Amino acid sequence: MNVGELLEGKQICICAGSGGVGKTTTSAAIAMEMAARGGKVAVLTIDPAKRLANALGLRELGNEERLVDPQRFAEQGIEMKGELWAMMLDAKRTFDDLIERHAPDEETRDRVLGNRIYQELSNAMAGSQEYMAMEKLYELHQEARYDLLVLDTPPTRNALDFIQAPERMTRFIEGRSLQFFLRPGRLGMRVVGRSGGMLFSVLKRITGIDLLQDLSDFFQSFGDMAKGFSERAQRVNDLLAEKRTTFLLVSAPEREPIDEAVFFWRRLREAKLPFGGVIVNKVHPDYLQVAEHAGGLDIEQTLEQLPNELERSLNGTEAAASLARRIAQNFSNYRLLAERDRHNIERLTDHLPARRVIEVPYLDTDVHDLDGLAEVNRYLFSSDTERREILNRIMV
Amino acid sequence: MARILDKRLIFVTGKGGVGKSTVAAALGVVAARAGKRTVVCEVAQQERMSALFHQKGVGYQETEIAENLFAFSIDPQKALEEYLLLQIKVKPLYDLMFRNRIFTYFAAATPGMRELVTIGKVWELSQLDRRVKKGVKYDLVIVDAQATGHGIAMLRTPKTFGDIARVGPIKRQAETIYEFITDPSLTSVCAVALPEEMPVNETLDFKRRLKDELELKLDRVFMNGIYPVLFNEREASSIELRYEEEVAGSDRSGVAIARRAALRAAVAEHGRAHAHHEQVERLKEGAKQEPVELPFLFSPEIDMDAIERLADILEEAL
User: Fold this and answer.
1) Which of A213, A251, B266, B271 makes an SS bond possible with A257, Cβ 3.0 to 4.6 Å?
2) pLDDT(B78) > 70
3) How far is A147 from chain B (nearest CA, A)?
């Protein structure tokens, strides 16, 4: 299985996963390869490392896609048959744009944009950044200018925040029941009745009137837009479930991100959202096991001989014995990690449908240029057998 | 400035995946060893503390997990109910409000409300005269906070509410909380980072935002997962040379493969240790402060042993 196969016939690829697992790099790499193969591809990213942003020619939050200069690929010897576009998402601006689009008149628009509750909402509310990422995705999908859109999702500690974002947004907007209650003397009073009046006065006492006033203003000005807004949230939600959409889960081979990936996969299944596969980054390959697999190596026996073997190999180097010992010690540390990774990945594959896990080894240097992305793609876009061969070739 | 363990409240935040929970737990162990009654408090309901300390579901209950060491996980809904009961006092009226689901709406509809009750609960835990009946008096509260972006939003909430609500208890309480968390003799805000580009950027950015938005100082940076320097430069170049010669050679025996793999792991380790050193330097320069350095632990998983090891190192460093 490779990413190329997973993306066949897809127009939207959503890269999701917990923080620090390499989502941004993975999204950029996938978009680059799909463009290199001839597609017109846009990658929507949230917060790329500065050097990667520079490599893609993204210098600021533009909220508009920009074509990555083909010259950059030529310089790196990467053949680019299609076009790679990239964009850094500005969640607040996307939200403001949305208000602008739905507001019936300028006055309403200004009232909403100037409301303190709105400002807090658009900046900080958990889920609003996630929702805005989807919103932008929807907008670009509607414009239909690209063959493939790759979305790098915001770093959530809880992956669920992402798929629940449209629902939460809708619920929030439709929480207008509060609006009645906040306007005593009108229809609302009749709904909540006498006890409601008493509750209102308690609420007022606890919160301080101005907070309620801002909230009330917000819902009143938002009221006219709410319908359009929730309809759109529904369409955004539908887009996620489309058969031309796929979710790629990005993970790392430690216990927590693996647990998170399994959890996310389950939630995708429950929500009937299309699952593509899991990409596990930063895997420590167990070269000895690869060699054993290829035939002709007894791991235990080999490890026993290793310190002496190394010392012999380093013969002539100053303090060869001490050096050999440290190299062997480091190798045994390394193998601990390799074993941990293998164990965690096995746990992952036990849960998932067959052959849906793609491993990318822990590369010697961090990826922050087009060359690095191309290196990542050697693994993302090869078959399981090819991947094993690449690793085996490194040693043999 | 008071030593970090002499404060009443420590916030631990940082980019996703850098080991916030691990560092928060290790700090808790250090404080408990020093005889301070300490509670490590989660806010994202992920039950990380339960996993780290092998306890079943700590949940919304202050659970003693070792001598002087407690764990707690804040559920905003429960914290809100607890808060309102304390505010309204009259139980029948309180019941009436919850039956009407009005506060559920109110809490769901007001952006920042979850964050406010969460930080309010953190504050309550750190008070010597606990509002909660029969509450344990803690010497120190350690918060395993959300990742940087949401973390700063939570720290900012009391100020925002203090500004929006011009009168009433919420304003008063928000201001009390704000004063507490911005008093450097009482509260320490710390960041955990890894010696990599993005976590270092995020830490520097966090420090700037703390200053600009809250006039707060970043107290400590914990640089986690630093690779040890095992080889000097001369040794590293001999290793690299040997590796290249070995790979160019035609020996395909098992031991030859093992030699190559071991040499390659050494080359990679050296490269990483070097890159980590550079990132630590970049942080020192950018933040103009010395981070607390924590080594990478070559262990299959972060368990109690690993936390005790980190606690030993922290004990020395703090």
Assistant:
1) A251
2) yes
3) 30
